[in-house]
Design brief:
The chain contains 13 helices and 8 strands. It is of the alpha/beta class and 299 residues long. Helix 5 crosses helix 6 and helix 6 packs parallel to helix 8. The two termini are 39 Å apart.
């Protein structure tokens, strides 16, 4: 029999998803089970947030406290559970040129489809918080060049995130992004823009390079619809932590109700059922295999 076609790489799957849907909805998944739920909902691409790793896996704020190894562990768990291409928040790359190169190799080895690097200083802040500080354009271009040179698979997406809008304005964010593209960035993450007009001007200035808009809740960017983003030329719409915020609020309600009422009975109708959980996990197929292994042999 002829050999079966080689499975597309994660990077190629992300690029194919971008071609199939515009804007491509990239939804955050803080762990493997969340990724399974996103896949069942029909999303074509998922995202691992640096804040998600810090908040959910370590109970820490998103202030550059977690490490490459911390992120790679969550990447491996997610990519083992689903085939959806995973875009990863790589913060500032965790160091200088050699460390940025290692970041790209380790994320690729863990199964990521791509990552974004940002132009903040190493002691970074959440992109929708005040007092962000940036490195100069040349230093960020060095990060991008190191990332591009380090990848073993040309399809691995190197995305450059600019936080310049908050402190330097839209024109500076555009100029920086043009330099980042010249340095080799495949896509641009335009952080914390405030209006559709700004997105339209931004996307036009760097076309045809795809631009990502971060549609995070409680942030600087309004919760634009897909049609609004499409009209502004945005190619990727990111929803990094919405599911995490929803499940965290539900957990707060559960803990508070159980503690005050002494029973969770009133909350049971709002819970995912045991059978629904088993459906996501394909539990019964595992159980059938276990039963077959334990079946007594006939004499």
């Amino acid at each position: 029999m002829p050999d079966s076609p080689e499975k597309p790489s994660p990077g190629n799957r992300l690029r194919a998803a971008l071609g199939a849907e515009s804007p491509l909805q990239v939804v955050g998944a803080i762990n493997a089970y969340s990724a399974l739920l996103a896949q069942r909902a029909g999303f074509r691409a998922i995202y691992l947030s640096g804040a998600g790793v810090a908040n959910a896996s370590f109970g820490l704020p998103d202030l550059g406290i977690t490490t490459l190894n911390d992120v790679c562990e969550d990447v491996r768990r997610i990519t083992a559970a689903v085939d959806l291409p995973l875009l990863v928040d790589a913060d500032t790359g965790w160091g200088g040129a050699f460390m940025v190169a290692r970041t790209i190799r380790e994320l690729s080895r863990a199964g990521a489809a791509g990552c974004h690097l940002e132009d903040q200083v190493q002691a970074k802040r959440c992109g929708h918080r005040p007092n962000k500080q940036l490195v100069d354009t040349a230093e960020m271009c060095d990060r991008i060049k190191s990332a591009v040179d380090a990848r073993r698979d040309e399809s691995f997406v190197v995305m450059a995130r600019t936080d310049a809008h908050a402190s330097e304005g839209l024109e500076s964010a555009i100029r920086r992004s043009q330099a980042y593209i010249a340095a080799g960035a495949d896509m641009i993450f335009a952080e914390a823009l405030g209006t559709l007009g700004e997105f339209q001007k931004f996307t036009a200035a760097i076309a045809p390079v795809p631009v990502l808009a971060n549609i995070t809740e409680f942030g600087k960017t309004p919760l634009f619809t897909l049609e609004e983003l499409r009209s502004a030329g945005v190619r990727l719409a990111l929803y990094p932590l919405g599911a995490f915020r929803m499940m965290s609020k539900a957990a707060e309600d559960f803990y508070g109700t159980l503690r005050s009422a002494g029973t969770q009975a009133s909350l049971e109708p709002r819970m995912q059922t045991r059978n629904e959980l088993y459906g996501v996990l394909d539990y019964h197929s595992y159980e059938r295999q276990l039963d077959a292994l334990n079946k007594p042999s006939t004499p």
